[in-house]
């Protein structure tokens, strides 16, 4: 049997379609129900579905009143606040193309993005770096006033038209613009049973910030699309207390957050919690077992990428066999390919790939001509993940061919970090890689050569001026030389191995 999924084809996306309308239409049937609670140790800020829908459509009208037209791009430079999802959905409602970005990006980083996406407007919060770009800027105070405007009409159109653009670190060292269609949100329905076990009566607490795409999708868009309640904790709020006090039934986080909650070894009293969800990086088995011991609940893990969100997962209905990532979600078109680009027999290693017709797959990477371009191997998009498909369809993640690093759920290219740090006059050669500092915990480390070791504080400041916090190395190591192959190519694998041998 070949390593190719045989799941049923999902129901086609309705047409005409608008992503924001779809996300909010279930909640429109229960306008007084709480759509969102921003939870704090001192209480909560509550948004009903009626208030959320009014704010989204008012914001859409406000953006149109600024002279924007459908298809224009809107760059989001907003912090960890409700302004982020309201502006995101408001732009989509009006037929605009939002470009959500991390508030941690520096001026050079966001300027490069703005140069590529050429936004018609920038929405900005106080203290967030702005691009060196001529697009006009709407600050948060003006943006908030838009919520009270009359509602915009839903901009309906083909499901395959461009909906939004997100950025992911490319293996070439430059962040890549991923263009998704409006239909991408419809495709996320495959996660409801294939990963979440999501229900309309759920209260989903996501540990991430509003302006992280993992939070935006799993923590907000998906619960709202089914009419559930989203819970987002204020930065610094005690998560264990928030989970209990606000009756969370599902909890989503990256593995590092689970480890933090478990660090003191105490039992966690979470009587309403059904299970946890994890994505962004590999969940260690020790963390999974410790969570079950502390709470009596399971954690279900998912494998995915910005180009298609998640596609392989465990779920309450179909737990993952030991050592595997789970199964292809119902409706996903996946294969494990050999070097010839054809599916390999089951139980053989190869490259995990997504069929070009998968409804959740991106339209493509934004090209120099402003149009999305989808790189394919025949009819397949190669994910970069090596995997193995068992006879029963369970998929085991084997690793990656590239040197991409993972920083708390964010994929980071070593080339991007190296390029920024190489500008330091005291560095002659540099390599960045991910190293393990204790069981199940890794950090980004920089290994460099130069006339003399440099103070870590100096390097921290140099990196902070050029890179978002999550991209900055946590360790610096001065070396006499860096390992290279016979052809002069840097070997990060050898660097990791030599560092591990020394520790």
Description of the structure:
The chain has a domain at 405-502: ANL, C-terminal domain (GMP Synthetase, Chain A, domain 3, 2-Layer Sandwich), CATH 3.30.300.30. Strands 2-1-10-9-11-12-13-14-15 form a 9-stranded mixed sheet, with helices on both faces. It has a 4-stranded parallel sheet with strand order 4-3-5-6. It is built from 14 helices and 26 strands. The chain has helices at residues 19-28, 49-65, 83-93, 107-117, 140-145, 184-187, 189-196, 213-226, 239-245, 255-262, 285-295, 414-421, 456-464, 492-502, and strands at 34-40, 43-48, 73-77, 97-100, 121-124, 137-139, 162-169, 175-181, 203-206, 229-233, 250-253, 275-278, 298-305, 309-313, 327-328, 334-337, 349-355, 364-366, 372-373, 380-389, 395-400, 405-407, 410-412, 429-438, 441-449, 475-478. The protein starts with 18 loop residues before the first helix and ends with a helix. It is an alpha/beta fold. Helix 1 (19-28) crosses helix 8, helix 2 (49-65) packs across helix 3 (83-93) and helix 10 packs across helix 11 (285-295).
Draw up the topology in text:
Blueprint: H1 19-28, E1 34-40, E2 43-48, H2 49-65, E3 73-77, H3 83-93, E4 97-100, H4 107-117, E5 121-124, E6 137-139, H5 140-145, E7 162-169, E8 175-181, H6 184-187, H7 189-196, E9 203-206, H8 213-226, E10 229-233, H9 239-245, E11 250-253, H10 255-262, E12 275-278, H11 285-295, E13 298-305, E14 309-313, E15 327-328, E16 334-337, E17 349-355, E18 364-366, E19 372-373, E20 380-389, E21 395-400, E22 405-407, E23 410-412, H12 414-421, E24 429-438, E25 441-449, H13 456-464, E26 475-478, H14 492-502
Parallel strand pairs: 1-10, 3-4, 3-5, 5-6, 9-10, 9-11, 11-12, 12-13, 25-26
Antiparallel strand pairs: 1-2, 7-8, 8-18, 13-14, 14-15, 16-17, 17-20, 18-19, 20-21, 22-23, 24-25
Helix pairs in contact: 1-8, 2-3, 10-11
């Amino acid at each position: 049997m070949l390593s190719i999924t045989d799941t049923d084809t999902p129901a086609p996306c309705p047409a005409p379609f608008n992503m924001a309308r779809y996300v909010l239409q279930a909640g429109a049937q229960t306008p007084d129900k709480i759509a969102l609670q921003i939870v704090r140790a001192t209480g909560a800020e509550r948004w009903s579905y009626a208030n959320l829908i009014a704010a989204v459509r008012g914001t859409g009208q406000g953006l149109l009143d600024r002279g924007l037209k459908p298809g224009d791009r809107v760059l989001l430079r907003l912090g960890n606040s409700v302004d982020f999802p309201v502006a995101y959905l408001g732009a989509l409602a009006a037929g605009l193309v939002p470009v959500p970005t991390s508030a941690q990006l520096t001026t050079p980083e966001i300027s490069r993005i703005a140069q590529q996406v050429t936004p018609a407007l920038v929405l900005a919060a106080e203290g967030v770096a702005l691009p060196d770009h001529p697009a006009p800027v709407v600050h948060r105070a003006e943006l908030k006033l838009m919520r009270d405007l009359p509602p915009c009409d839903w901009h309906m159109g083909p499901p395959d038209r461009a909906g939004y653009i997100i950025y992911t670190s490319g293996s070439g060292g430059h962040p890549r613009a991923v263009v998704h269609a409006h239909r991408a949100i419809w495709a996320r329905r495959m996660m409801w049973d294939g990963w979440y076990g999501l229900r309309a009566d759920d209260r989903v607490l996501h540990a991430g910030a509003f302006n992280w795409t993992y939070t935006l999708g799993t923590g907000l868009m998906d619960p709202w699309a089914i009419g559930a309640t989203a819970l987002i904790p204020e930065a610094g709020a005690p998560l264990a207390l928030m989970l209990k006090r606000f009756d969370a039934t599902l909890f989503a986080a990256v593995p590092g957050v689970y480890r933090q909650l478990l660090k003191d070894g105490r039992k966690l009293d979470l009587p309403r919690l059904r299970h946890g969800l994890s994505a962004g990086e590999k969940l260690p088995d020790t963390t999974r077992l410790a969570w079950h011991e502390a709470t009596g609940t399971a954690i279900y893990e998912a494998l995915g990428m910005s180009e298609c969100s998640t596609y392989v997962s465990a779920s309450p209905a179909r737990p993952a066999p030991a050592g595997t990532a789970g199964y292809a979600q119902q409706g996903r078109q996946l294969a494990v390919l050999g070097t010839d680009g054809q599916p390999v027999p089951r139980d053989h290693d190869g490259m995990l790939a997504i069929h070009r017709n998968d409804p959740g797959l991106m339209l493509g990477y934004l090209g120099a001509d402003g149009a999305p371009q989808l790189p394919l191997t025949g009819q397949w998009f190669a994910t970069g993940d090596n995997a193995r498909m068992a006879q029963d369809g369970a998929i085991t993640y084997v690793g990656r061919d590239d040197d991409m690093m993972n920083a708390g759920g964010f994929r980071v290219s070593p080339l991007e970090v190296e390029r920024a740090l190489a500008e330091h006059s005291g560095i002659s050669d540099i390599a960045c890689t991910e190293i393990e500092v204790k069981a199940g915990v890794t950090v980004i480390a920089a290994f460099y050569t130069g006339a003399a070791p440099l103070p870590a504080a100096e390097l921290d400041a140099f990196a902070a001026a050029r890179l978002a916090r999550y991209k900055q190395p946590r360790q610096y190591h001065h070396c006499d030389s860096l390992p290279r192959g016979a052809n002069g190519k840097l070997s990060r694998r050898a660097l990791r191995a030599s560092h591990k041998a020394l520790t």
